[in-house]
Amino acid sequence: MAKKNYAMTIDLQACIGCAGCAVTCKNENNTVDGINWMHYTKKETGEFPHVRYDFMPTLCNHCDNAPCIKACPVTAMYKDEDGLTLHDADRCIGCKACMTACPYGVISYNKENPHQYWNENNAWSELSATPKEVQDHAGAPIPYHNPERDYNYESIRYRGIVEKCQFCDHRLARDEQPYCVDRCPSEAMYVGDLNDPDDKIHELLKYSHEGLKEELGTKPKVFYLRKFSK
Amino acid sequence: AGAASTKPALNAFSTKTEASQENVEQGEWIASVCQGCTAWCAVQVYRIDGRATKVRGNPNAKANHGHSCVRSHIGLQQVYDPDRVKQPMKRTNPNKGRDEDPEFVPISWEEAMDTIAEKIIELRENNETHKFSVWRGRYTSNNGILYGNLPKIIGSPNNISHSSICAESEKFGRYYTERYWGYADYDHEKALYEIFWGGDPIATNRQVPHTASIWGELSDRATLACVDPRFSTTAAKSDEWMPVIPGEDGAIASAIAHVILTEGLWYKPFVGDFTDGQNRFVEGEDVDEDDFEEIQTHGLVKWWNLELKDKTPEWAAERSGIEADQIYRVARGFANAAPKAISFSSPGSSMTIRGGYTAMTQAALNGLVGSADNEGGVISNGISVPNNGFPDPDDYIDEIAANGLEQERIDWGGRLELPALKDSASGGVKVTNTVADAVLAEDPYNLKVVLSYWTNFNFSNQGTDRWDRALAKIPFMVHMTVNPAEQTHFADIVLPVPHSQFERQSPVAGSNGNLHRHLHLQNRVIESPFDIRVDETEIPWMLGEALEKKGFSNLIDYFRNEFRDPETGDAPTNAAEFDEIATKHFTHPVWDPTFEKDGDQIDGWEEYKRLGTWNTNRYEFRQKWDGNWGTETGQFEFYSETLKAALQDHADKHNVSIDDVMEATFNTVRGDGAFVPHYEPAKRVGDESEYPLIFMEHRSKLNREARSANTSWYQEFKDIDLGDEAWDDVAKLNPKDAAELGIENGDMVRLVTPEGQIEVKAKLWEGTRPGVVAKCYGQGHWAYGHIASLDRRRQIARGGNNNIILAPVHEALSGSGARHGGQTRVRVEKV
């Protein structure tokens, strides 16, 4: 089978700046508070009443020339055969060289084992349950834990390693869009195969578009179409 | 390098490892409904091993067609929130107040029901059943049992909904032009121009998932104008932002109508024309009614003569703070797009002290451009959704109950100063926020037994201090709640109830959208971690059994005798069966293929449970045209004979004139002007010299009706509300005002109004109009859980609840609470 070359488009004109992508990313990838593989930048410019707002969802750019891969001493950051920049948790030594190298700030480090809240035995009030009781009832480390993330990556990472967006490689592998893309209420996002001439990503890229910090030569694979504000 | 990695050798929870290595879906999507706002979207919940793990829009629902907004996902953190009430509790400290520890202890469901029954029997023995009250917060279509019929059988007229603090003023505008009391639907897919009056439909109500899904295309095709004192997402993504002085929207609306008429831009196939084709709408000049021949409408010339002839954009500019040029531009663009031009009302612009008339002007604009009930316009009715309702309780209302039902209502709706004219009836709306005043003044009496569900009235009503005192004064209150809320602090019995999205099976008649109406079904997706019972069905059943033991069996008899499973004919024998039978009974017409209806064909109950929704067919436009508007004249009314009749009834009831009603409701208009859409100047509480700034509040994209603040996903992304900060609650000041006050970004400030004060962080923000302090609603919980509240014992909130400082005032004609339009002035002090 021909190799794929995945890339994402985000249509900022369609985007409503709701953080639905950021929330559903946490949901799919079991990330802990404070670690967000998908986040956003906001820019407000001008003075009242001539104000402008620009919102951009931000995530790993899966760069073709990825600084994190070059920086990683143990090949924990690697390029897969379909063009994804992936992280191998088993190889990671938590040296954070990738975080230093990444110009986009989208790699996070686990200072603690995540989701320890659910092991707590104290109830907030005499009316309430303990987190542990709810965890036990659910029978999962987080009650709404997504075990499907386990494919090709730890479903929950652990203290001492980094983590980042995998473009939902587990979903792409079964011909589904990343979860953020599927759940975006404004249908602003899409992941397609640049190697496939029939993929609709080529239509989308006819809009004016740009990648972030392209001048650094990282060759980012997340393309922002049009503008958030008119 | 950081700490050594600590990968667990064996994960106790990795029972699915083998399956996941195969990378297959491990769960199934179960239909349900999100009630995080009143769009009430059909959703599906992804269930793995009995756990709710994900949410998406239900693809079977034509109003949201597979989409759901960010709020729907946050429900996952709510349903598994350990801070929830986990079992029935009772108060052991008889003293009530903010400073009193309730000293709750666990009790059984049986003890809870026995105690409630005892209190009700006491009322019956003393012939004061009217002092019983049911308070309704968020609800499903099964509310007809607990909220509708249970109080009747007990014998009380006091079933009090939260609806008046929701959106009644907006409904007033459409009702008194085209006689529809409800939420409108909008044909965004065909519109060429939209004016959003305080509307933010890609963030909050209405129909967010549908609007969001077509927004990119809509903004290509249509010109969008957003009237909002603060810079919302919709404002940011519109062609025109009109940052109006709060509460002065009506001036702009009248001026738009003025431009449309003077420039001859009204939609003539709808409105009609001068008999000789000559436009006589000239600024300042009266027009002879005989010169104009109307088609679908009534009273255009009266509206002009009474209101519009002087309302130029230059006049409006002085009041609204919006430049005349912009008003001309929007008016012309809007009218040139006719009839595919939408004037989109929202509570933000009409839930003001005199906002009923503002909503009416906004509605009338849809008449001027012929978009009312027209393609690319506004649908103010729709195809009806069949349901069975609930059996008539009349045979179970005994003499004691009948006597109680005759007593005056607690809520003051229908009094001279509160016409609350829903459906043309004086007192047609149950007014929520006056109940606190009524209890405190014992006018007409104090309530003695209250059953309250999914409410938090001392948080969600303006003037929270009054509610704290009123709740302390009510001898016996049962709070059926998901989280321990502010209201719970005053409860005698606390009952844990389901999170509606995941833990109950109930019908929900969601708001219309995308030209469809529907009847959705919530399903019990998970077994709750908590000892819950369904508030609207199971708890009434258990209460009925407890009352029967004490010699009053009418309630349980009603349930046993009148409810039958539509498939088997079986009567319910316990609470769980009653719950299921009630839902099947109510929804029977939509899933029984033998019922004729204008919509989906569904083959039976099991199929309905699986699909989770029944949709009407797509609405065909112009059903109200040609005499079917339902108004007094049968026309779309610019001069509202319908309102005139309703006001006359109300005035007659009190033996006063309509002018007296206008005075009592703080409206400035006198005479015939009361029957046309017109400008009323904003009325504010507080003296300008003492409170120099105007306080305005707005909604959050993440609020699930102020119930989501105890989730980390809410706090982590709170800064997507423009100008807001993550994990915080800020007062947004224009930098010019801040400089004058010596306030810097991040300073703690005290917001002081005549009603109260809160302390929050100051945010300097160009999206706030100078002279205005803008703040989002939703934070400021001193209860609810460990994230929403910073310290439960000391009752320290994260942020400040706007309702502490907002005055408890009303848009009296509609009976709506008036929380918007800068109804309160504020002083900002550096702490």
UniProtKB/TrEMBL annotation, chain A:
Segments traversing the membrane: none
Domain 4Fe-4S ferredoxin-type: 6-35, 49-82, 83-112
Pfam families cross-referenced by the UniProt entry: Fer4_11 (PF13247)
Record carries keyword Magnesium: no
Superkingdom as given in the UniProt entry: Bacteria
Molecular function via GO: 4 iron, 4 sulfur cluster binding; metal ion binding
Stored PROSITE patterns: 4FE4S_FER_1, 4FE4S_FER_2
UniProtKB keywords: 4Fe-4S, Iron, Iron-sulfur, Metal-binding
PANTHER family membership: PROTEIN NRFC, PROTEIN NRFC HOMOLOG
Name of protein: 4Fe-4S ferredoxin, iron-sulfur binding
Organism: Salisediminibacterium beveridgei
Gene symbol of the encoding locus: nrfC-2
